[in-house]
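Hi support team,

I'm opening this ticket because the web form for multi-chain structure prediction keeps timing out on my end. I have pasted the exact lines I submitted so you can reproduce it. The total is 232 residues across two entries, so I didn't expect it to be a heavy job. Is there a limit I'm missing, or should I split the entries? Thanks in advance, R.K.
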Amino acid sequence: AQTVTQSQPEMSVQEAETVTLSCTYDTSENNYYLFWYKQPPSRQMILVIRQEAYKQQNATENRFSVNFQKAAKSFSLKISDSQLGDTAMYFCAFMKHDTGFQKLVFGTGTRLLVSP
Amino acid sequence: GAGVSQSPRYKVAKRGQDVALRCDPISGHVSLFWYQQALGQGPEFLTYFQNEAQLDKSGLPSDRFFAERPEGSVSTLKIQRTQQEDSAVYLCASSPRGLAGPYEQYFGPGTRLTVT
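Hello R.K., no limit was hit. The queue was backed up. Here is the completed structure from your submission:
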């Protein structure tokens, strides 16, 4: 079974600064996908960024980038130029690469507060 | 187009009552997932539908939980004889494909169930 660990329950950052959220996972699979989801206080979860395990290049989406270390099973999220709208819960999630359906396995989340 | 919608958004039930939670996925989406999110936790997989077929229900916590998607679109999660431990947010997600791949899951706003 896969597990996802987020060791930072809460993080704070000031507007315009950079913050890194940590995530580690445990799996015996070689092919899989990793995701960061954002859940604002309204609770609708939205995808921030995803990474295919077979790709060595780290994924980037505008101000969001990841540091994917496959050997260490680490998948951290860096948010640059933090904005007030980035305040939310952030969940790291794992998905097996399978011929069947794909359920997400989530970590417990990191609450990020961006202050002015 | 419209996103995933869920109703009701909030539900208070007395212990022992039956409840039904509705999910309207994005039109045309093949895959539909139900997740349970306890307070302070990440979402946990409950069950998966590909069109009208329930392909996995391994995450349902007990036989009091039942889900259906009879016409391959709207889905209902039913909980019989609710218990306090059923209190959680129930999230529905849909995805456009049923095959393997990093297809994004689009989440609804959730139904917050409180059992008193």
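A quick check on our side: The two ends of chain B are 37 Å apart (CA to CA). Let us know if the file doesn't open in your viewer.
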